[in-house]
Amino acid sequence: MDRFAAMQVFTAVVDAGSFVRAAERLAQSTTAVSRQLAELEAHLGVRLLQRTTRTMSLTEAGRLYYEQCVSLLAELLEAEAAVSHASRIASGVLRVNAPVSFAVRHLAPLLPQFRAQQPQVGIELTVNDRVVDLVDEGFDLALRISRQALASTLIARPLAPIHVAVCASPAYLARFGTPASPRDLGRHQCLGYSYTDRGMSWEFAGTPPQNIEVNGFLRANNGDVLVEAAIAGAGIIAQPSFLVGDALRDGRLVRILATHPLPQYTAWAVYPSRRFLSAKVRSFVDFLGAAWGEVPPWDTGL
């Protein structure tokens, strides 16, 4: 019995939740998968799975063995990758997760250039505005925008700075006036996020930081919505430069309170902490770092 192959079959059955789906993933027959699992159980002298015609579940011994198999297989695959051709040549499908607005505006336009540099790498890009579990959801890396790296179990590489600008349309400021200090914001329509854990409070940098309670008739869970509403004259926004940069440059929005900066954010590349980083991940992260640099395109001219 090939114990390595048997471990792969066992973990595939557990991950897939059925013999049929595991067989499809492994490109084997269901009979072959069932036979290898039976041989593995006979070799170990324990039952790993409780199965009926309708259900399947891990036994206590199976749960322990599964955890060990996952760890051992990962280490073995990494050891092979370290000395294989694949570890030196970027290839395969790269699964990336990124925030919606950032991906649309600043990631998608770069992908053809990356493809030209790495023609053997395909990209599967998933966009949403939640923090995904890279390992459980099968992503190679994620782009995240935050003040600091989030999870200590992950590797986080800073790619580019992101500044936050307080701004409004010329029409709004002409009608309601321009705030001279952060405290003046309390008399204005301030548009913010509906999911923020700080409610409608904007933090301005300083010693100590200054938290200003703001209010407005509109809250949304997407930055592009808030930007477009502000351009239409709905109120004042505090949004990252990657969202408002174009509107500031062409005059649709005007920056205010520039002498009262908000805390700076960072665009991070986040990937699982592994001893060996695949060439496709490394090449993509290096590419983004070079493309955006210390003064990223969204900050040019601001």
Describe the protein's architecture and organization.
This protein has 302 residues and is α/β, with parallel strands linked by helices. It folds into three domains: 3-83, Winged helix-like DNA-binding domain superfamily/Winged helix DNA-binding domain (Arc Repressor Mutant, subunit A, Orthogonal Bundle); 88-160 and 266-299, Periplasmic binding protein-like II (D-Maltodextrin-Binding Protein, domain 2, 3-Layer(aba) Sandwich), CATH 3.40.190.10; 164-256, D-Maltodextrin-Binding Protein, domain 2 (3-Layer(aba) Sandwich), CATH 3.40.190. 40% of the residues lie in helices and 23% in strands. It is built from eleven helices and 14 strands. It has helices at 3-16, 19-26, 30-44, 60-83, 100-107, 111-117, 134-137, 170-176, 223-231, 241-250, 279-292; strands at residues 49-51, 56-58, 92-98, 121-127, 141-146, 154-162, 164-168, 190-193, 201-204, 210-213, 219-220, 236-240, 254-256, 265-272. The protein has a five-stranded mixed sheet. A hairpin with a 4-residue loop joins strand 1 and strand 2 (56-58). Helix 1 packs across helix 3 (30-44), helix 1 (3-16) packs across helix 4 and helix 2 crosses helix 3. It is elongated and about 80 Å long. The N and C termini lie far apart (66 Å).
